[in-house]
Amino acid sequence: MTRWLNDDELRAWLNLAGVMLKLSPTLDSQLQRDSDMTHFDYLCLAMLSESADRTLRMSELAVRTNASLSRLSHVVKKLEARGWVERFPCADSGRVTMVRLTAEGWRVLVAAAPGHVETVRSLVFDGLDAEDVAALERIAGHVVELIEQAGLRTVT
Predict the structure, then answer these.
(1) Which burial class, exposed, middle or buried, applies to 84 when counting CB atoms under 10 A from its CB (0-12, 13-18, 19+)?
(2) How crowded is residue 89: how many other Cβ atoms within 10 Å of its Cβ?
(3) HSE on the CB side for 38, CA within 13 Å?
(4) Where along the chain do its domains lie?
(5) Considering the domain 36-116, what is its CATH architecture?
(6) Given this model, what pLDDT does residue 152 score?
(7) Can you give the pLDDT at residue 31?
(8) Among 68, 59, 65, 107, which residue's Cα sits nearest to residue 84?
(9) Helix, strand or coil for residue 149?
(10) I want to staple 101 with a disulfide (CB 3.0 to 4.6 A). Which of 1, 27, 105, 129 is the partner?
(11) Does residue 32 contact residue 112 with C-beta atoms inside 8 Å?
(12) Interatomic CA distance for residues 71 and 29, integer angstroms
């Protein structure tokens, strides 16, 4: 039996669908225009910048960016070609690939950050109070968790 959405759920879903469909292309457009990178490129650089030695295992960067390893590998290859990151084998395990933000990648990220943060602030956070931000974090985290759990299930 289909569990149809009630009126409140439908309105919430349509608003969430609007966010999903409009926010990502808007962030991509701003970053492409101002910094010649995608939002996902920016996210990869930002997550590296916040880690010790600006270095992470590829698998950890995938977790922090909510990306599959295959998608991340493709993007890191592109970022490496631009001189923004470098890949190298892990000292502890030759089977693990590390990725490090380069000095040029840091420079590009620092230049891109103000415009990106202002765009995020104006599109998402302006007009929200602290309770709204906490609710947004809780709800978004819950949805991401459900998506990740669903991705682990085998479809029969």
Answers:
(1) buried
(2) 11
(3) 10
(4) 36-116
(5) Orthogonal Bundle (1.10)
(6) 55
(7) 98
(8) 107
(9) helix
(10) 105
(11) no
(12) 20
In 10 A of CB 26, how many CB atoms? 14
What pTM value is reported for the model?
0.87
Q: Per the structure block, which two tokens stand in for 98? A: 């590390």
Beta strands 85-89 and 55-57 are unpaired
Query: What are the per-10-residue average pLDDT scores of the chain (156 residues)?
Result: 96 96 96 97 98 95 92 96 96 89 98 97 96 97 89 48
Q: Give CA angle at 46 (44, 51), nearest 5°.
A: 100
Q: Output the pLDDT for position 155.
A: 39
What are the residues facing 137 on neighbouring strands? none
Within 10 angstroms of residue 6's Cβ, the number of other Cβ atoms is: 9
What amino acid occupies position 23?
A: L
